[in-house]
Amino acid sequence: MHPQDVKIILREKLKAQRDALPVAERKLAADKALGLILQMPEWKRAQTVCLYASFKSELATSGLLESALRAGKKIVLPRVADKNQRCTLHHVANPASLVLSNLGIPEPAATLPTVEPTAVDLFLVPGIGFDREGNRLGHGAGFYDRLLASAQSKGFRLGYGYDFQVVPAIPSESHDIGVDAIATPSEIITVRPR
Ligand SMILES: Nc1ncnc2c1ncn2[C@@H]1O[C@H](COP(=O)(O)OP(=O)(O)O)[C@@H](O)[C@H]1O
Ligand SMILES: [Mg+2]
Fold first, then answer.
1. Strands (E), 153-193
2. Which ligand is nearest to the CA of 137?
3. CB-ligand 1 contact for 3 (6 Å cutoff)
4. pLDDT the model gives residue 102
5. What is the pTM of this model?
6. What's the CA gap between 52 and 174, in Å, rounded?
């Protein structure tokens, strides 16, 4: 089967699994993942972190946003201009001030100052699935493949998701960019030391 077809099937399956998670378990899972990430040397030393606002049934990122803010880190968030474009990174001094994009995703306003991807010390990388080799399955638009490519391998790439989102194998194509580690509620999977 073509990698694109395997990706489509995996996306459907993993999204359905995520949507089926009881609400009470979601918060507990996010709290556990947060506890593990706060211990990571890569998190502790990162001064500029590229986070994202979780939406729908994604593992929540609100605790990380609050922790980064409290720790005095510079928080940048991606803004997707439109479906075929790259995203831009914006410095967000107050994560409460996000606006809803036309895709329904909370994003920084376009007027906030932009930040170069190469200036980011740590990227929190969303994914629908990951494998233990660091391969990543996104939503299918390739936004993070483009964003991470433009970061020129600077910045630690930390995948983030529920335990069941780590699967035996994610097909990888030449444009796909993997992660250096994956944080789940029960473990930090180190793929490659940086
Ligand atoms: N660096 C890039 N430059 C141009 N197109 C890219 C790049 N990275 C990914 N794409 C395109 O984005 C589309 C989606 O990529 P895919 O890896 O399937 O999605 P996702 O990473 O969101 O799961 C593909 O058609 C791919 O060619
Ligand atoms: Mg990809």
1. 156-160, 181-183, 188-190
2. 1
3. no
4. 79
5. 0.96
6. 25
Domains of the chain, CATH where assigned: 3-190 (3.40.50.10420)
* Ligand 1 center–CA 50 separation, angstroms: 20
Look up residue 81 and give its two tokens: 């201009």
The ligand placed nearest to the CA atom of residue 135 is: 2
Tokens at residue 72, please?
Answer: 């005095």
Confidence check: pLDDT of 83 > 70: no
Query: Which residue blocks in the chain are alpha helix, DSSP H?
Result: 3-19, 23-38, 41-45, 62-70, 143-150
Tell me which of 175, 176, 177, 179 to substitute to probe ligand 1's pocket, judged by most ligand atoms within 8 Å of the beta carbon.
175
Residue with tokens 């991807």: 117
Minimal CA–CA distance to 103: which of 68, 66, 140, 69?
140
Ligand 1 atom showing the smallest separation from residue 173 Cα: 17
Ligand nearest to the CA of 128: 1
> Would the CA dihedral through 172, 53, 24, 188 be positive or negative?
positive
Mind listing the pLDDT tens digit for each residue in 15-69?
Answer: 999 999 999 999 999 999 999 999 999 999 999 999 999 999 999 999 999 999 9
77 CB within 6 A, ligand 1: no
Question: Ligand 1: which residue has its CA nearest to atom 17?
Answer: 142
Please report the pLDDT score of residue 104 as a whole number: 82
